[in-house]
Amino acid sequence: MEQPEDDSGSVRALLRIKMKILLVEDEQRIADFVCSGLAARGFSVKHCDNGDAGLDEASKGSFDAVVLDIMLPGRDGLSILQALRAGGDATPVILLTARNELDDRIKGLELGADDYIAKPFYVEELAARIQALVRRATGDRVSTLHVGNLVLDRITREVSCRNQVIELTSREFALLEYLMRSPDAVFTRGQILEHVWGYDFDPTTNVVDVSIKRLRAKIASLEGLDAESPIESVRGAGYRFRRVP
């Protein structure tokens, strides 16, 4: 029987009409990487390399989301964000931060940023974050994730396969949800620690590997899945949730 689309399916119609993203980033290497990566995923990207031009473009109100670096020539990212929110602009904003800029992340969220992503990052994760913000902004966030035969229900907090249910701890559930939101995207241990355990968690711990091992064992108890675990180790990189047929 055909399964419903995964959680990003409700956004695909928007992507087909070229969702417009404003990227304000002064480092050309990062800008090229983001622009090409998002364009390959169906986004239309406008790039500005300084804060003054970025605020001018953002103030036009013609973008579905803004990806905003904090450290910029001219106006800095937090100043741009503050000006947008003071003017009543509710366009979703994702901040680009360095991994050690904790104070700036907190201030950005207090000023009205919708999310942040720490450098270095994968463009797949950035695209997933943008899609999540669009769902939130449009009120179209579905309650379940489907990848192959595996179903994660955000409301009941159950994970099942063909009516078989496995019990997960709250942390295991959050870990599986994080991986299933972006099938085939590779996440580093640092990214998983940051978004499942919190950004101030000790990065030297092996808690990610231990939790992945336990999660794999619980998923393996379900009948109807492939013999291989859908959670794959990517050598030298991290983990990904494999999109299964």
The main pleated sheet reads as: 5 strands, parallel
CATH architecture of the largest domain: 3-Layer(aba) Sandwich
Annotated CATH homologous superfamily of the largest domain: Response regulator
Radius of gyration: 19 Å
Low-confidence stretches: 1-17
Provide the CATH top-level class of the largest domain: Alpha Beta
Question: What characteristic shape results from the CA principal axes?
Answer: elongated
Strand order of the largest sheet: 2-1-3-4-5
Helicity, in percent?
25-40%
Order of helices and strands: HEHEHEHEHEHEEEEHEHHEE
Helix-strand layout with pairing:
Layout: H1 12-16, E1 20-24, H2 28-40, E2 44-48, H3 51-58, E3 65-69, H4 77-86, E4 93-98, H5 102-111, E5 115-119, H6 123-138, E6 144-147, E7 150-153, E8 158-161, E9 164-166, H7 170-180, E10 187-188, H8 189-197, H9 207-220, E11 231-234, E12 238-241
Parallel strand pairs: 1-2, 1-3, 3-4, 4-5
Antiparallel strand pairs: 6-7, 7-8, 8-9, 10-12, 11-12
Helix pairs in contact: 2-6, 3-4, 4-5, 7-8, 7-9
